[in-house]
Amino acid sequence: MTPPPPTSPGRAGELTLVTGATGFLGAALVGRLLADGARVRVLARSPAKAARLAEQGAEPVVGEIEDAAALADALRGVATVYHLAGRLLVPGVRREEYRRTHVTGTSLLIAAARREPGLRRLVHCSTTGVLGVTGDHPADESAPLRPTNIYEATKAEAESAVRSEIHAGLPAVIARPGLVYGPGDLHLLGFFRAVLGQRFWPIGRRPIWLHPIYIDDMVDALVLCGRSPLAVGECFNIAGPQPVSLVGLAASIARAGGTTLPAGRIPLPAARAVATFGDLLPPRLRRAAPLTRGRLDFLTHSRVYDIAKSGRLLGFVPQTDLSTGVVRSLAWYREQGYLATAPARLRVGT
Length: 350
Known about the structure:
The structure is a single chain. The protein is of the alpha/beta class. It contains 14 helices and 11 strands. It is globular, with a radius of gyration of 20 Å. The two termini are about 40 Å apart. It has helices spanning about 25-35, 45-55, 70-75, 95-115, 150-165, 190-195, 215-225, 245-255, 270-280, 285, 295-300, 310-315, 320-335, 340; strands at about 15-20, 40-45, 60, 80-85, 120-125, 170-175, 180, 210, 210-215, 235-240, 245. It has a domain at about 15-185 and about 210-240 and about 305-320: NAD(P)-binding Rossmann-like Domain (Rossmann fold, 3-Layer(aba) Sandwich). The strands form 3 sheets. A 7-stranded parallel beta sheet has the order 3-2-1-4-5-6-10, sandwiched between helices. A two-stranded parallel ribbon has the order 7-9.
């Protein structure tokens, strides 16, 4: 196999824009780009968070992803865009909010990008979630889109809009992250707490497979999407070295924390009853519920991906094995005090 051509960090002085720069993945990407010596501009909703990014060396533009004027300011003179702005699935958030952020925001970004003559690359961050439940067989980029919730559905709609623009000549790339974890992530914090508090039990009897990717590896893949000459016009599933069972992930966390998993399982009918009750709670209480139907879906359906294409075209090879990533994540949670004061609770995923 012919190796992919070398990547370039970009022409000297070129400007890169990152949307969603204050999020877990966005902040890590900004740090990497600045460390590489890139000129980085960020679009941020919060003036306070924008100021913190400015202290790191980024040029901030304060505004919403749905604000056409802010987008025009942010894109002016930009050569590369990493579009990471998004809204994770959280109980109680209105469906319209996901549509505004993912669909309207992406459409406005594309329109602004079209007006920039110097734009060389737009990396659109989607999600492997657009493929829905895969079962035990890894899904590749040609698999049909089968979203299962409003987050995935609006991400799929935004991805389709980008794909249409690619066909019209926009130099874009679609990157689909799997389950990203690592220092800085709070999405899996509840799962770590539950495991370390010996309050995690698998649901049902079938093994459930996930495909996590460590944050540093995910950032590497995004940078490759932004720099590799073979990336333009393509879509890539980005995930870790190999799938892991949900019990395997829990066992890795338990080992890193010096504990063990309790024996037993939760019967699926009982879990469904708890999830149904969780969905009936008011939004404020629903977020603290042990289970909702969305979380139950995460805990009882396998989602695994074929990442061969990213290796073949980008030369992407994830470097961080699960045990190393879990140890680093656990250390960060402890440093930040997240595991010292908060009670364990079975809350994971969407």
